[in-house]
Amino acid sequence: MKSKDLAVCLVSGGMDSLVCAAIANTEYENLAFLHLNYGQKTEERELASFKKIAAFYKVPASHQKIIDVSFLKQIGGSSLTDDKIDVKKYKGDSEEIPDSYVPFRNTHIISMAVSWAEVIGAKRIYIGAVYEDSSGYPDCRPSYYEAVNNLIKEGTKDGDIRVVTPVIFLKKDEIVKKALELKAPLESSWSCYERNDKACGVCDSCALRLRGFQKAGVADPIEYVTRPTY
C-alpha cells in the first residue's frame, strides 16, 4: 500500500536520483520534486532531464520546485562549477576526494528541501546518495545522513522530517537493474559532468555509469561521444 502522505524527491536528473524517485513512487501516492541550478557546467541538460522525469511521474507543477543556488559557482572550488578547473578523465577508483566534489553541496540541497517540506507538509525527503561514491564524496556516507537527520530533528518545528537514502548501499549495476525493474525512464537521465549535447564517456560520472550498465549486461540508452569499456 502506498502512503497517501507527501514525499519530497531531490531530482538532479542523474541516474541515481531517477531511481530514487522511482522507488519513492512505489511508496508514496504524492510526490514533490526539487531541483537545484548551481552553476554546474551541465546545468541546462540536467534541468531538461528533471523536467522529463517530473513529467514521466506526473508530478504537478505546484509540486515542482527549481531553486537557483548559483552562489555555489561564485564560491567555486569544484570542476563542476569553476571554469578554471577542467573536468578530469576517469583514472580508476580512488579514495581521494576528486575535484568534482562541490563543497558541502548536499547540505545546502537538503536544507532547502527541509524548508520546503515544512511548508508543504512532507515528512520524508528522498535523496539518491550512493555509498559506492563515498570514498570520493564525504556527503554520500551513511554517517553523514545520520548526522543530518539528527540536525533536522533538532532544528525543525515538529522534528519529524527525515531524509531517506534508498539506493545508498547499491552498486551502479544494481541501480541500473532497479531502474529496469521499476521501468524508470533511463533515457531521460543525465550523468555527464562535462557536456550538454552528448555524454563524454570519460569523466568520472560517465565511467561509473557506463561500468554499471556493462556489469548489468544492458546498453545505456543515452548518446555518448565515446563508450569505453570499464
Question: How many angstroms does the end-to-end distance come to?
Answer: 40 Å
* CATH C-level class: Alpha Beta
Tally of DSSP helical segments? 7
Residue-averaged pLDDT, rounded? 94
Structural class assignment: alpha/beta
Tell me the overall shape.
globular
Instruction: Give me the CATH superfamily.
Output: HUPs
What keywords describe this structure?
alpha/beta; 7 helices; 230 residues; Rossmann fold
Q: Explain this structure to me?
A:
The chain has seven helices and five strands. It has a single domain (3-190), classed as HUPs (Rossmann fold). It is an alpha/beta fold. Strand 1 (3-10), helix 1 (15-27) and strand 2 form a beta-alpha-beta unit. It is globular, with a radius of gyration of 17 Å. Helix content is 37%, strand content 13%.
Quick structural overview:
This protein is an alpha/beta fold and 230 residues long. Helices cover 37% and strands 13% of the residues. The protein has helices at 15-27, 43-56, 71-75, 105-120, 142-155, 172-181, 204-216, and strands at 3-10, 28-37, 64-68, 124-126, 162-164.
